[in-house]
């Protein structure tokens, strides 16, 4: 049977030998050829000992891995979740599960930085933004947040930026979700924000001095009340009002916008996205007019292409963190696109009438349950509620919760006297009967009456989801075709290579993906009892131990649900360590100028001051400048953040000297794990002097990018920092792999972050084994060096190591091309679309360059296809320079070419239609046609439209 690693790694042994010959690597007859390359590329001083014993088990076959996952799944118990607290059972329409969640056309796509070939998912995100904006009653929504609790934290920071008040006080609703309170405390502490809790629904007054107020609507207890007076009071004090609202409830109750809110946040989980033991789920944020340029994360807007036709793209891209760095509005550099697409499709599938019907059904079930419990003698605490009732049963709460659990139902024990119970879309009459029976109701008292407890004074008056897209796809046939039409407009890994540097677009194998939709993983509530989630906890323990082993750390927390949150968690651990040692003066974070932009933004959010360290002409950290900055700031040094291999795609030889210098100054070393896929199996961060790192499971460990999310960004640390890693007050247990207890505050809403996708990385590591992970690293480095060698005569390779080798990516310098021919990096990127490729990373980390990362998953034929395309594009640019085509009328400056642009009207260009459409004859058999021509980003920013345009806008 063929081993999984032979399915995962695209290049065969024969192909690798041919590639090494092309590079000029000599290898012995008695060794693996790739080992000769790695000897040249990876500095000898950092290589792991050849006899190091790994704790990873030997590689399993695909069938064996699935069988083991089935054993773990069977250790979970899926009981009926009626806990609520922001997580609910939901019915994922099968047409959405099969055609989005399980469809590689959606889950293998990359972030839509090349909008011309991302029109499908951008339309889905415009639908998402329109859905959120309509339901919240606010003007502009972004393209998703990481989860509800972190969205509230981002709302707090937005209020601080947008408020005219000089205050440091933020008021928190006493009826907020407990996980949100805990996360707010984590984020506020590092930034000097004072949180003041008030029983807002109970009438407690606001402090005189504040910059914002946060309201949970409905409350965690289920209570519905009118917060408009509190919002008005916050405005009078100069603050902004942030409201966390349940989108399903908003189909029945007044929208936050109509109540005066400035910002609305929340989650879209109950719009068809499984609970997944806590994630991934798409959070949301919407703002009133005037605050749209303060929005964190991504915003999809409508612009126009070269023919003046409407076209979608990411708006206000200067907010992206790799550009704004420490001045960024947030450290978030990703989103939850795949889950946002699912939620938007749920709204498209059901439409406003369907959503309202679901909401009415949920509210009626809650009311019906409440009436039965009242008959049994229980006290319903609040008269007005949507889906959650709080029940007072003095001294009986624990017993009732235990009895319900025995009956297969999960309730929420608030305290010894109180239980809360949430109905959802999946709640049945039988569930209500079972709960009522546990409370002592007699069987003869059940007669279902569909009445809600939503107060008439707060009934929703304004319309929502009026755009035709939410009315046009009612049959499954129409829905299936709509999703297919969007997928066809996009370019994903199921079409071809996505050679993006710094963003590892490797194979997401079907076997790795298989378990995420199994009910035993997908239908778990994140706060389910420990006894119900033994299989998931074991999987988490195993994955934590495996990741600790391959990185050289002692402990790993899987809680961060994005790389940016992992960065923040690691820096907060360093902050906690220094504070515990009495070193509160250590606040300076040294960051090389070549670093990922999120590094600087994360440091600021961790309460640190950024000091930039220079890089030399080879792209390495300038050791002299580092020592000078250390001397300048002396006892203030908290940390150094570096990426290894570097963001320039080079293995730095001085890394041990760099980390030693920081440690000698009393600082900690944070190694950004973005490029771990170039190190795995050959060296470990902990052995390089790293104290803490985040890892991108969506890069190195095969979790799909999903069009810009989900991501998982675990954080690993040495033992002295482990106590400060993120914990969670509602976690099923406190001990982690290796016995470590994490006492830091949470950075995500759920105890284990996006636990629903962890089976993907578990399966990847299990099927690769230690040797397979090492082979994948070597194959990736070989592919990058092959591309660099093949293209070096056509485009200078900007950085390389001492032996002239790159790591897993190479930077092609297109600035000389522009000087010689006038052709820009944008022209080359758009022309690659005509050749059937997604472009490499443009102008990062160096303006005017392309950063290419082929990954280990691509075979030699695909690598050659890319190389030949780049060589031909260089030849086309040279023809422009030679005067064969005018500088303003050639196939590069007009790229990409749509079918309509080639077929409609007269052809008046200096080049032929054939040259435009089929620059190589191989494209004739399977051409990908971009749906729009080059998009005018500046026009879109000047004319900001971030909701569904009317259908008339698309009329030709």
TrEMBL record:
Gene Ontology terms for molecular function: glycine binding; glycine dehydrogenase (decarboxylating) activity; pyridoxal phosphate binding
Modified positions (N6-(pyridoxal phosphate)lysine) in chain numbering: 699
Domain Glycine dehydrogenase C-terminal as annotated: residue spans: 776-897
Cofactor: pyridoxal 5'-phosphate
Keyword annotations: Oxidoreductase, Pyridoxal phosphate
Domain Glycine cleavage system P-protein N-terminal: 6-439, 452-727
EC number(s) per entry: 1.4.4.2
Matching InterPro entries: GcvP (IPR003437), GDC-P_C (IPR049316), GDC-P_N (IPR049315), GDC_P (IPR020581), PyrdxlP-dep_Trfase (IPR015424), PyrdxlP-dep_Trfase_major (IPR015421), PyrdxlP-dep_Trfase_small (IPR015422)
GO cellular component, one term: cytosol
Catalytic activity line of the entry: N(6)-[(R)-lipoyl]-L-lysyl-[glycine-cleavage complex H protein] + glycine + H(+) = N(6)-[(R)-S(8)-aminomethyldihydrolipoyl]-L-lysyl-[glycine-cleavage complex H protein] + CO2
CDD domains the record matches: GDC-P
SUPFAM superfamilies linked to this entry: PLP-dependent transferases (SSF53383)
BP GO annotations: glycine decarboxylation via glycine cleavage system
Function according to Swiss-Prot or TrEMBL: The glycine cleavage system catalyzes the degradation of glycine. The P protein binds the alpha-amino group of glycine through its pyridoxal phosphate cofactor; CO(2) is released and the remaining methylamine moiety is then transferred to the lipoamide cofactor of the H protein.
Subunit structure: The glycine cleavage system is composed of four proteins: P, T, L and H.
Entry's family note: Belongs to the GcvP family.
NCBIfam families: gcvP, PRK04366.1
Protein name: Glycine dehydrogenase (decarboxylating)
Species per Swiss-Prot/TrEMBL record: Microbacterium azadirachtae
